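User: For a benchmark we're assembling, each entry needs the component sequences followed by a predicted structure for the full assembly. Here are entry 17's components. Please fill in the structure.
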Amino acid sequence: QVHLVESGGGLVTPGGSLRLSCAASGFTFSDYYMSWIRQAPGKGLEWISYISSSGSYTNYADSVKGRFTTSRDNAKNSLYLQMDSLRAEDTAVYYCARDRTGGYCNGDCSSGFWGQGTLVRVSS
Amino acid sequence: QSVLTQTPSASGTPGQRVTISCSGSYSNVGSYTVSWYQQLPGTAPKLLIYTNNQRPSGVSDRFSGSKSGTSASLAISGLQPEDEADYYCAAWDDSLNGVLFGGGTKLTVL
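Assistant: Structure for entry 17:
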């Protein structure tokens, strides 16, 4: 069965950096686009990034563009989110999610599987 | 900036049918498919509906989705206490070049 496990969250001071990881199992990781989605405390879901199955293409929400970098290692079945220049408003639970189907979703996009999330707190 | 608008809250009694709406624009719901997610308290979201009206394996047929123009709806029939959760719609958005989520609807089962 599909299993996604995020790690790397914690408390960081404003301006600091953190690297999240997402370990995937139960499917052919290299076949699927992956996303990072976050949820601030008591708030809704916010898509922040996706990466193509090969890792050659990424895109980001404006709120994190230029500060966050998504990458993947298909040999290690792992997804990463490098977060730099962190701000208080980046405080959230960060989820990694797998596209429902393999390949580019082409407008019929949904996240079929989610990890349990990892909490990132940005505070002095 | 694009938005998907959901009413913040909804409620119903056990056995009732409840509908949750999601309003967007041509750049998202009007041009692409809608998915719905259920988030039970303290847990990760779960895909409930994809491609406007399709249910993943294991999702109860009490849940159904529909879309018309720039709006979409999630209907829950035979409401049960365990349906109390937050529900989010989502669709690809051209402006975002990513997936746009609605603000969420908190469903209370009275």
